[in-house]
C-alpha cells in the first residue's frame, strides 16, 4: 500500500513546485484525500482553537453526550449499532450568513477565535481550489466560480468530539460515507486517531499530525471534474482511550449553484451520453440527507434520470 500523501505547501514557492503539484494531482486522482503542512494558518491560532474546543466540550457538551448515550442504552449494546454515531457535535455557519453569534453556550473569546480560524480556513480552501484548477487545466478561479451561485459559496464548520467508547467493535464514531459538497478541510486531533478512508477495498488510517490540515474531496468535485477526481468513502472508528477532536470545515457550492462537468474535461464522445448529471446543489442536498450512508452512485443516477426527462439549461 502506498503511503498516505502529505503535501508540504512551502515547496509550492520553490524549485520543487512541479513535484509538489504532481503530488497533489496524484492524491486527488488516487486517494481523494491528502494532508497539508506548512500552510498559511498560524500554529498559535491552531493551538488556541484546539485548547478552547476541548475545554468547551468538557464544560458544555460532555454531560449532554453522556445523557444521549444513557438514553439510547449504547453502553449496553450487544450487536452492531447502525443508526447512530458515537460523536458530540455542533455546527457553525459562516457563509452566506453567519450563525456564530446565535450558538448558545459559546464563550465570547471562543466565538471570536472560531471566527478568525474560519477566515483562515476559507482562504486556504480557495487557494487549494485554484491548485486543483491548475492541475486540471482549468482557468484560475473556475471552481470558486462554479460554486458561487447567486450569493457565494456555502461555508460552515462541524465541530466534533469522539469520546472514549467501551465497545468500539459495535459502534462507529461516524459511519462510512462520502461528503456531499465541494472541498473539506479538517483540523484533527494529533494524538487520538480514528479517521479512515477506503482505498482499493481496504480501510486506511489518516495519520494524525501536529498542525496539519487534512483535505478531502466531495461529490461536487467529482461531478465538476467529470470523474477525474473522486470523492472517497471515509469513516471514524471509536477508541477505548482518548477524546478525539475534529473540526471539519466544508467549502460547498451555494444552494442555487448549477453543478455540471466542466466542459474542457468532457470528451466529445461523452457529450451525447454524459457520465455525470447536471443539477442544482440544494436539490442534491435534499436527496443526500436521506441517503448519506448509502453508495453515491445511485444519487448521480437519480439526477441523470431526472435530467433525461427534464433537461436543465447550463446558462
Automatic annotation (TrEMBL):
Q: In which pathway does it act?
A: Alkene biosynthesis; ethylene biosynthesis via S-adenosyl-L-methionine; ethylene from S-adenosyl-L-methionine: step 2/2
Record key words, sorted: Ethylene biosynthesis, Iron, Metal-binding, Oxidoreductase, Vitamin C
User: Which BP terms does GO give this entry?
Assistant: cellular response to fatty acid; ethylene biosynthetic process
Which domain of life does the UniProt lineage start with? Eukaryota
Molecular function, one GO term: metal ion binding
What residue stretches are annotated with the Fe2OG dioxygenase domain? 153-253
- EC number of the protein: 1.14.17.4
Q: Which Pfam families match?
A: 2OG-FeII_Oxy (PF03171), DIOX_N (PF14226)
Q: Which family does it belong to?
A: Belongs to the iron/ascorbate-dependent oxidoreductase family.
Please name the PANTHER family in this protein's record: OXOGLUTARATE/IRON-DEPENDENT DIOXYGENASE (PTHR47991)
What protein does this entry describe?
A: aminocyclopropanecarboxylate oxidase
Record the organism: Carnegiea gigantea
